[in-house]
Amino acid sequence: MAVSLSIGLKQSQRLAMTQSLRQSIEMLQLSTLELAETISHELETNPILEEVATSEDVTYNDELIQDMNLQLSGDTSKADRIEERDRDFGNTSDAGFQKSYDDDRKQQAIENAFVERESLADHLTAQVRVQKGSEEEIDFLVTLISLLDDNGFFTDNYQTFCKEQSVTTDYLIGCLKKISFLEPVGCGASSVQQTLLWQCESRYPDDDILCTMIREYFDLLSKLFYDQISKKMDLPVDLIIKKSTLIQGLSPYPGRLFSKKETNYVIPELEVHYVDDQIILMFYDDWIPRVKINSYYTSMVASSKIDKEIKKYIRERINSAKYLLRSISGRRETIEKVVRAIMEFQTDFLQKGPGHLKPLIHADIADHTGFNESTISRVTSNKYVQTSWGIFELKYFFVTRVNSENSDQSSDNVLKLIQDIITGEDPENPFTDEQIVSRLDKAGIQTARRTIAKYRGVLNIPSSTKRKRINKLKME
Questions:
Q1: Virtual CA dihedral for 126, 128, 133, 136, nearest 10 degrees?
Q2: Which of 151, 184, 287, 382 might form a disulfide with 31, Cβ 3.0–4.6 angstroms?
Q3: In this structure, is the dihedral angle defined by the CA atoms of residues 398, 401, 402 and 408, taken in order, positive or negative?
């Protein structure tokens, strides 16, 4: 069979990943904070872009309006009191009354200054440095402190660590015990049980019963099996319960007080309201930088006096700016369409709140809007909406369908039903998972016992046995 090469033309259609398309896709999945950071970065790197100054409306508070009304009505009593105060105290050095605007600004700057929070390692190291001991021991304690996690635990394997550091296990445990007596007490332990035991030995050194409960019966203690502990220790149940209340004053994770993990603040993408059978959407984008293309540079491109290389650079920057503006506009329009479609499906939620979501998947919104399912996924990731019932992630509104006589029953409805069933149960005889399954079956919802257990976990509701013990302790 002869093999030959030939040249020919072939016409086909395919989607090319252009810069504009790539930027639009990336922009779509950004959260509000990330979008603001992206625009700010573009403002710094692209000289063609400039921020549009927005005029802020002057707002007046109720107190100011009341003062203006009093002045207009001829009542100058409050103004007289302020004048009298200024006359009597204006020239004093009392720090409680600041007259100077510059002093106020300086004070505010000091109060708002960023102060780095002390870490757990720094806090413990400072205490170790002032203790008595050899230089080698102090250095070893500092090394151990540097290996503690955010909870204050030492999680390395004892044998492996001792081999690497050429020390004995007893010496390691002794050093960790010394760290445990520092503030916060209990650091250096390898588990919750050990840190509670060390804290107990430090704060209640003469309480042998409590230490024994933690050391030997911690598993039963965590499950609230006080009656079994009572039998094993041959002590009254009332005494066991009384001793267990002391544990509530201990910290299972002593290092968390110094944790540097920052709080992640959620900024909603938009606000949703249902008024007179209409869905009202309002974007939270007032604080996002407004940008436009500087007209000075566009005029430079049309000038014949500008060098060709400079013109080429300006054109490239202008095209980049146009891509950005087009992507921002497209992002807003796409989000608005998707969110409106979601809310049209979930109007019951807008009216009645959580527990009234209908079954919804990405394909439903894709069919309704004409977008691809991947686009729906990008829009709903890291996006939040403010509703009358609180702030919710867009993914919250997508729930699965459950087997029921009513095809509109969703997992959200089942969660609410389970919550209502457990709320109305007898505290002395809580419903078991099997009994909850039976009640849901009577309501036309078919679920398995393991599903109920899973949903209880989502709702942070303990088992019926544990609920019974908790309720009994509350009544006592």
A1: -90
A2: 382
A3: positive
119 DSSP 8-state letter: P
Residues of the chain with CATH 1.10.10.60: 411-475
Q: Is 277 helix (H, G, I), strand (E, B) or coil?
A: coil
Nearest residue to 159 via CA among 171, 148, 169, 144: 169
Q: Which residues contact 147 (CB under 8 A, 6 or more apart)?
A: 154, 156
What per-residue confidence (pLDDT) applies to 75? Answer: 54
Q: In the block, which residue shows the tokens 């002395």?
A: 428
Token pair for 205: 């050194």
Helices and strands, number each (H, E), in the chain: 23, 6
Helix, strand, coil percentages in the chain from 3-state DSSP, rounded to 5: 55, 5, 35
Chain segment 384-437, per-residue pLDDT in tens? 999 988 889 898 898 877 766 555 667 777 888 888 888 888 888 888 888 888
Neighbours of 341 (CB within 10 A): 21
- In whole angstroms, give the CA distance from residue 6 to residue 12: 19
Which pTM value belongs to this model?
A: 0.56
Q: DSSP states of 336-366 as a string? A: HHHHHHHHHHTHHHHHH-TT-PPP--HHHHH
Looking at beta carbons, which pairs linking 119-125 to residues 24 or more positions away fall under 8 Å?
A: 119/258, 119/260, 120/145, 120/148, 120/150, 120/152, 120/187, 120/255, 120/257, 120/258, 120/259, 121/145, 121/146, 121/148, 123/183, 123/258, 124/148, 124/179, 124/182, 124/187
User: How many Å apart are CA 455 and CA 399, to the nearest integer?
Assistant: 13
pLDDT digits (tens, 9 = 90+) for 158-205: 888 888 888 898 999 988 988 888 888 889 888 899 999 999 988 888
Which of 187, 98, 113 has its CA nearest to residue 147? 187
Check: CB of residue 253 under 8 Å from CB of residue 151. yes
The two most distant CA atoms of the chain are separated, in Å, by 112
**Neighbouring-strand partners of residue 392:** 385
- For residues 254 and 184, the answer to whether their CB atoms sit within 8 Å is yes
The architecture CATH gives domain 411-475: Orthogonal Bundle (1.10)
**Taking the CB of residue 2, how many other CB atoms lie within 10 A of it?**
3
